Amino acid sequence: MLRQNAWKTYDNEKLEKMNAFCEAYKTFLSTCKTERECVTFAVEEIKKAGYVDLKDVIASGKALKPQDKVYVQQMGKALAMFHIGDAPLENGMNLLGAHIDSPRLDIKQDPLYEDSDLALLDTHYYGGVKKYQWVALPLALHGVVVKKDGTVVPVVIGEDESDPVLGISDLLIHLAQNQMEKPASKVVEGEDLNILVGSRPLEGEEKEPVKAYILNLLSEKYGITEEDFTSAELEAVPAGKARDYGLDRSMVMGYGHDDRVCAYPSYQAMFSLEHVQKTCVCLLVDKEEIGSVGATGMHSRFFENAVAEVLECMGQYSELKVRRALANSKMLSSDVSAAFDPNYPSVMEKKNSAYFGKGLTINKYTGSRGKSGSNDANAEYIAEIRKAFDDNGVAYQTAELGKVDQGGGGTIAYIMGNYGMDVIDSGVAVQNMHAPWEVASKIDIYEAYLGYCAFLKEIK
Ligand code: MN
Ligand code: MN
User: Fold this and answer.
1) Which ligand is nearest to the CA of 261?
2) Which ligand does the CA of 336 lie closest to?
3) Residue 267 and residue 281: Cα distance in Å, rounded?
4) DSSP 62
5) Which of 113, 116, 134, 318 measures 20 to 30 Å from 366, CA to CA?
6) Nearest listed ligand to the Cα of residue 98
7) How far, in Å, is the centroid of ligand 1 from the Cα of 289?
8) Ligand 1 centre from 238 Cα, in Å?
9) How far apart, in whole angstroms, are the C-alpha atoms of residue 455 and residue 451?
10) Judging by beta carbons within 10 Å of its beta carbon (0-12, 13-18, 19+), is residue 350 exposed, middle or buried?
11) Which one of the ligands is nearest to 334 CA?
């Protein structure tokens, strides 16, 4: 099947729009390196676009009506935005969903120690990572420390040009004879991902003076103590901004494309709506990389609860209407796909691979070992999606995540499928997925945005 390279179809005007969109995306990607930062950034923007907190609507006792825009924030790590349509909510919603957590190294609850005059932080990696990729590169710390009195201290160290960066050492090649014999999964072990944070002793301190220096610094700069690590969520992530990639600047390299490269176009697409017939929703969720578990992951019922609350605010609540609203919905579950990589062609089946430049990718199914764990979208639904994309000139391609029996992966699609709604995986192709620095094509990012806009407006 011939799928054209979208670059060949763009005129100057469209190229300019694409570039403007990708510049804004780069700012988002450089600023938002944790799920909390993504929610904070998005909420600021959606408020300006007229979205109001559902909590405030409930507290005020005001009724919601068609064309109102509301949002729900779940613990600052997940977000649901509703643009209410003229049609009854029980007729279903058009849903865009993506995740905003990315693989990283989380700082342990009791992390700080001193060894041979060096101070280090213990970590526990989050999500699927090749551990050897996380050594010998500049790391930044992002997150929050919550003190016993409830004060939330935000932390971002290593992003400003004047900030220090942190990192994990690698073994010098000269002494790596034994290490180089090990399988890649053992070259760097999880428990050895320790971040070096200091080497200077505190004057007058006899016991662990280097650790004491760091604690002194944390107390002065942030007003936090060693005990406060207990109630902290600190994530070590690659330090630095998203950058243009390629001599022709056709791609973007950044940390956390998976899955912010779908999250950003998804919530931006909500701003393209004017008067909507069907209620449109964007869902940004946490914890996908570890199984969509917990109160902020897609398995949480926070979204279902939000639908119930919206119905209640419209004076239409019933248990049956909640179920109907969910079952009658249609969703694009957006997550990244593996981009065909000429360096590693053996893991791909060429006809059913995603390629840079060929637009938004749709995956009928994901899964592994015979589609296990996959949502497997209905053919009828795919036909509807094809029509919406074709009618709106959206460049899209279909793909599987690699060759049969090469591995695989899952998304949030099957979880929403549990409600009986139509769901299909879609998203942007990425090289280096889950590596500290991932790469995506600018034209695919923009086509994803256009595809999401078409989906929200066209799907009946
Ligand atoms: Mn993902
Ligand atoms: Mn992932």
Assistant:
1) 1
2) 1
3) 9
4) P
5) 134
6) 1
7) 7
8) 18
9) 6
10) exposed
11) 1
Please tell me the distance between residue 27's alpha carbon and the centre of ligand 2 in angstroms: 21
**What is the arrangement of strands in the sheet containing 243-245, beginning at the earlier edge strand?**
243-245, 251-254, 438-441, 429-431, 337-338
Gap between the Cα atoms of 397 and 170, Å rounded: 40
Q: What long-range pairs does 454-457 form, CB within 8 A, spacing at least 24? A: 454/388, 454/389, 454/391, 454/392, 454/394, 455/94, 455/96, 455/269, 455/332, 455/385, 455/388, 456/94, 456/96, 456/269, 456/270, 456/272, 456/273, 456/276, 456/280, 457/272, 457/273, 457/276
Q: What is the CA(88)–ligand 1 centre distance, in A?
A: 32
List the pLDDT tens digit at each of the 460 positions of the chain: 888 999 999 999 999 999 999 999 999 999 999 999 999 999 999 999 999 999 999 999 999 999 999 999 999 999 999 999 999 999 999 999 999 999 999 999 999 999 999 999 999 999 999 999 999 999 999 999 999 999 999 999 999 999 999 999 999 999 999 999 999 999 999 999 999 999 999 999 999 999 999 999 999 999 999 999 999 999 999 999 999 999 999 999 999 999 999 999 999 999 999 999 999 999 999 999 999 999 999 999 999 999 999 999 999 999 999 999 999 999 999 999 999 999 999 999 999 999 999 999 999 998 888 888 888 999 999 999 999 999 999 999 999 988 998 888 888 999 999 999 999 999 999 999 999 999 999 999 999 999 999 999 999 9
